[in-house]
Specification:
Elements: E1 4-5, E2 11-18, E3 22-31, E4 36-46, E5 50-51, E6 54-55, H1 58-76, E7 82-87, E8 93-102, H2 120-130, E9 139-151, E10 154-157, E11 167-178, H3 179-190, E12 195-201, H4 202-210, H5 213-218, E13 220-225, E14 230-236, E15 239-246, H6 250-261, H7 265-275, E16 288-291, E17 300-303, H8 304-327, E18 339-342, H9 351-359, E19 363-365, H10 384-395, H11 399-402, H12 410-424
Parallel strand pairs: 2-7, 7-12, 13-18, 18-19
Antiparallel strand pairs: 1-2, 2-3, 3-4, 5-6, 8-11, 9-10, 9-11, 13-14, 14-15, 16-17
Helix pairs in contact: 4-10, 6-7, 6-8, 8-9
Length: 425
């Protein structure tokens, strides 16, 4: 996808991070000559009509999307016509696959073989074959991300263009999603007269904004703790090796507090954000939290440490599920640089200390570091995905994005890929 051209002096990129807690619209100005993005505007509104990546109330979601986009347009003083969406949910699945093609042709001389350099057509062909896996009828490929190429017996090749050999093999990471979830999300945005140029799995977008090249090369895992889900992306050798979605997020903590203390979800959320610590030993056993009472009920209070114990129990469960996903990457030394936590859940007090104790590795908060003008405005963990969406057109290696023809909708591209795969089987 190319950045949107609005006038002659600058190019715009728009990201729409659609989460269960908040929907954020970011507008960036792309400088393609320096491969940099400057933040022009960012707007965020509480979500409505979507939960766990699945639309629950279409009209409510469209209204919320319209409001957040209008806010961003006023801030940036532009008209938004195109956008890139984030997507997550339990329906997301990933797998690694590979394919190979012969490179040389008999040149007419007995026993002779023509030598020629590998070109773009060869690379696209091997990636097309790699994504031609048999999927259920209700699933589509969201991303086809190259991991490495092999030319004959030479491996760990990042870009085989111009090399010569007899056989080219490509290994890729495929991310798939439910067709219904993709179609419904895109149609909600397109109903507002906005073209969807692509969908991006949330942790892949967040990784672009928060991770450094050295970290992705030597081994690091990004953990995006959202409201209803936690997304994981394991990076090694400069690319994603495994990704997954865990069906638990920070709203599970809120629900635990609400149930244990017999409070409304709204009151439980306030207590969580104001008093709770992800590590109970780092909270006070003497500080009493006054609980809201309704209709003249008895006044109640609870120690801060007790509330924190509910938080710690749920976060430890999430971190253990994260460790399980990392082990599925099946690579050596996946955590040389440890773990980076992003998303709204990463803003819990003392979460880094708990994470390091639970997972036994170095952990840091992921803040957007690759966007100009985001400092003090959108440099918190909750903005990582929205900032990453702005970087996606410039830095993504996604084969699906690169093969997209101009003036073709994302929905049309999915149809093209589906028909191509069906013809191969």
């Amino acid at each position: 996808m190319n950045p949107i051209v609005n006038g002659q002096d600058y190019r715009l990129v728009v990201g729409l991070d659609i989460g269960s807690a908040n929907i954020t619209c970011s507008v960036g100005q792309a400088n393609t000559s320096t491969n940099s993005i400057k933040l022009r505007a960012i707007s965020s509104i509480s979500s409505s009509g979507i939960k766990r990546g699945v639309i629950t109330n279409r009209n409510a979601l469209i209204d919320t999307l319209e409001n957040v986009i209008n806010d961003a347009e006023r801030m940036a003083n532009v008209k938004i016509t195109n956008t890139i969406l984030s997507i997550t949910g339990e329906h997301i699945r990933s797998l690694n696959t590979q394919a190979a093609i012969p490179l040389n042709r008999i040149n007419g001389v007995k026993g002779g073989i023509s030598e020629r350099a590998i070109n773009d057509t060869d690379i696209f062909q091997v990636l097309d074959l790699a994504q031609a896996v048999s999927l259920p009828i209700d699933r589509d490929i969201l991303h086809t991300i190259p991991q490495e190429y092999l030319v004959d017996t030479l491996d760990e090749i990042k870009d085989p263009l111009g090399m010569t050999g007899r056989r080219l093999e490509g290994r890729v990471h495929l991310v798939t999603a439910a067709t219904t979830a993709i179609t419904n999300l895109v149609s909600c945005v397109e109903e507002l007269g906005i073209t969807v140029d692509g969908l991006v799995f949330q942790p892949l977008a967040a990784a672009l904004a928060t991770l450094k090249n050295d970290e992705m090369e030597l081994g690091i895992t990004l953990v995006d703790i959202g409201s209803t889900t936690t997304s994981v992306a394991v990076y090694y050798a400069g690319t994603v090796q495994h990704s997954a979605t865990i069906p638990l997020g920070s709203s599970s903590i809120t629900n635990d507090i609400a149930v244990m203390l017999q409070l409304s979800v709204a009151d439980a959320e306030i207590i969580k954000m104001k008093y709770a610590s992800a590590k109970s030993s780092m909270s006070s056993s003497e500080l009493e939290i006054e609980l809201p009472s309704k209709n003249g009920g008895l006044k109640r209070s609870v120690p801060e440490q007790e509330v924190s114990s509910y938080v710690e129990a749920r976060m430890e469960e999430i971190f253990q599920m994260v460790i399980r996903e990392i082990s599925r990457a099946d690579i050596k030394d996946p955590l040389t640089y440890g773990i980076v936590v992003t998303g709204g859940g990463a803003e819990l007090r003392n979460i880094i200390s708990l994470a390091e104790n639970s997972m036994g590795v170095k952990v840091r908060k992921g803040k957007p570091i690759n966007i100009d003008g985001a400092q003090d405005i959108a440099d918190g963990p909750r903005h990582s995905t929205a900032m990453g969406l702005l970087l996606w057109p410039l830095f993504s290696t996604d084969h699906i994005q690169m093969e997209k023809p101009k003036n073709r909708s994302f929905k049309g591209l999915i149809e093209k890929i589906r028909h191509t795969i069906e013809e191969m089987f």
